[in-house]
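2024-03-11 09:14:02 INFO worker-7 job=invfold-0412 stage=load source=structure_tokens
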């Protein structure tokens, strides 16, 4: 999401406009408020990416074309549906619709000069989600959140031990 879709959309509207839109989000419970925007952040946690996804479609409304917005919506739909704890025939149909919409509309990024191609491993991997879900069931347990959290905790402990800091 962040490495591709956000960067593509940022190329379309610019860092300043993207930051302005993130900063303009109303501060409400349940949503992270990006008070300084996002362009200054160099490393993102999975949690921060999820918070961005919650507002990204609405944030881009009026700044990008309907076709770009369709790609963004389809991508986020795909991400959310793929993470469902239970998958059914209906959810797989919705996942397929999101996938098909993404592929049908993605050329807009080439037309606008943002991308030269879509030979991207993560984009190709989307195709394999259907087979993986059919073979293994819901994929909600296949993410990096726990590993990220443990890495952060253990890295801090190691740093404190090495520097004698508290």
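2024-03-11 09:14:09 INFO worker-7 stage=emit residues=166
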């Amino acid at each position: 999401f962040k490495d591709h879709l956000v960067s593509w959309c940022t190329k379309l509207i610019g860092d300043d406009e993207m930051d302005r839109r993130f900063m303009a989000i109303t501060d409400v419970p349940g949503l992270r408020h990006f008070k300084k925007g996002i362009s200054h952040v160099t490393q993102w946690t999975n949690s921060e990416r999820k918070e961005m996804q919650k507002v990204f479609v609405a944030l881009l409304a009026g700044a990008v074309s309907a076709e770009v917005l369709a790609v963004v919506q389809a991508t986020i739909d795909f991400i959310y549906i793929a993470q469902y704890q239970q998958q059914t025939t209906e959810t797989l149909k919705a996942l397929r619709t999101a996938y098909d919409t993404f592929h049908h509309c993605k050329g807009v990024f080439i037309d606008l000069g943002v991308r030269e191609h879509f030979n991207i491993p993560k984009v190709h991997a989307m195709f394999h989600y259907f087979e993986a879900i059919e073979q293994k069931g819901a994929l909600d347990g296949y993410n990096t959140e726990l590993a990220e959290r443990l890495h952060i905790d253990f890295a801090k402990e190691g740093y404190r031990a090495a520097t004698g800091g508290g």
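2024-03-11 09:14:09 INFO worker-7 stage=report msg="The chain has one domain: 2-163."
2024-03-11 09:14:10 INFO worker-7 job finished
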